[in-house]
Design a protein that fits this description.
seven-stranded mixed beta sheet; six-stranded mixed beta sheet; 11 helices; 17 strands; 25% strand; Metallo-depent_PP-like; CW_Biosynth-Accessory; CapA family protein
Length: 372
């Protein structure tokens, strides 16, 4: 009779390190209980390349960040995200070179970025892929190197082909609306489609806050792990909270999973009590499965439109989305000194999926309200 082996894989969310992490003993024990220990590397290492033209912040991390993550015990590094290309090809390639070549995912040339990483444990083949939503570093036809794009036309065929090569296929995706604690329906539909194509688990990050978990056709979809260690200023109350997700497999099937909340205080990261983690997941899942879920998303879309996106649509043409003395003075300055159309901002509005889908929801919602 053949022995039954159990394999554990562990995943954390976004990491940008300016300081060296100090993991609690309990967290270390959990980390080293897993065969694969994955951490999303959110930004290139400082000192390499030049800043690209884009909207939003340019982010880089300490040159020693790769050494610190490896020393902490992580051994898998998805990099398909919206900041990894902030300092161009040179910044990306130097960052990749700082890690062992066989433990990075979702970045490089098209051949490398869309390639699968296969790890075999006790004759069971596990495949790992990483994708990000569209962005200034996405491999969408605009550049020769960057990150794998989750909505690329090639993804459907790739996943179907890769699933035939492995027993279990795990896909990580960096996408979603930032600081929203539920996924929008458009991303839920996309992740379910990836499961239909052959993915056995979908694990996501990017919103900087945690989101819930659901099972679809017996496969796990974890919508956001939040931040793990993000040294970037923010006043958001959840900025220094995230989740550690563990998946346990036996006989090529997932037999258990666990969602544990971690908290960063200064440089120290430690696990929250099990009861705290259970409460977080319960509350997140209740929002995800609530009868008012769609209304909650639509209201968030309208709020985001009024706070940010209306101005994003006005700004490229030096327009004015909101009338206030401060905005009118800024508008006058732009009219006098900025005569060019901001095509970067237009690209940001039209092609990054989360932005586009959220604005579409806001406009439909506001239009419907005006018709009443």
């Amino acid at each position: 009779m053949q022995a039954s082996h159990q394999h554990r894989f562990l995943f954390v969310g976004d990491a940008v390190l300016q300081t060296e992490p100090e993991l609690s003993e309990e967290l270390k024990a959990l980390l080293f209980s897993a065969d694969i220990r994955s951490c999303n590397v959110e930004a290139p290492l400082q000192g390499f390349g030049s800043p690209i033209a884009k909207t939003g912040p340019l982010v880089a991390q300490n040159r020693l960040a790769a050494d610190w993550l490896i020393a902490s015990g992580f051994n898998l590094f998805p990099m398909a995200n919206n900041h990894i290309y902030d300092y161009g090809i040179e910044g990306l390639l130097h960052t990749m070179e700082a890690f062992p070549h066989d433990v990075t995912l979702g970045v490089g040339t098209e051949e490398d970025a869309y390639d699968i990483l296969v790890q075999t444990f006790d004759d069971v083949k596990y495949g790992f892929l990483a994708y990000g939503e569209n962005g200034y570093g996405a491999l969408n036809g605009d550049r020769e190197a960057g990150h794998a794009w989750v909505n690329s036309p090639r993804v459907q065929e790739d996943i179907q082909r890769y699933k035939k090569m492995v027993d279990v296929l795990i896909v990580q995706v960096h996408a979603g609306v930032e600081l929203l604690d539920v996924p929008i329906p458009e991303w839920r539909a996309r992740y379910r489609r990836l499961v239909d194509l052959g993915a056995d688990a979908i694990i996501c990050h990017h919103p900087h806050v945690m989101q819930g978990i659901e099972e679809y056709k017996g496969k796990l979809i974890c919508y956001s792990l939040g931040n793990f260690y993000f040294d970037y200023p923010s006043n958001h109350p959840q900025w220094n909270l995230g989740a550690v997700l563990t998946l346990d497999f036996q006989n090529k099937e997932r037999v258990a999973y666990d969602f544990q909340v971690v908290k960063k205080t200064g440089t120290r990261v430690e696990l929250e009590d099990e009861s705290v983690s259970a409460t977080w997941l319960k509350n997140l899942n209740e929002k995800l499965n609530s009868a008012s879920y769609i209304e909650y998303v639509n209201e968030a879309a309208v709020r985001d439109w009024e706070q940010h996106h209306a101005a994003y649509y006005a700004k490229p043409f030096n327009g004015l989305a909101k009338y206030s003395l401060k905005n009118m003075l800024k508008h006058a300055k732009r009219v006098l000194f900025n005569k060019n159309i901001d095509y970067n901002m237009i690209w940001h509005n039209m092609f990054i999926e989360s932005n586009k889908w959220l604005v579409e929801r806001a406009i439909r919602y506001k239009f419907k309200q005006e018709q009443k």
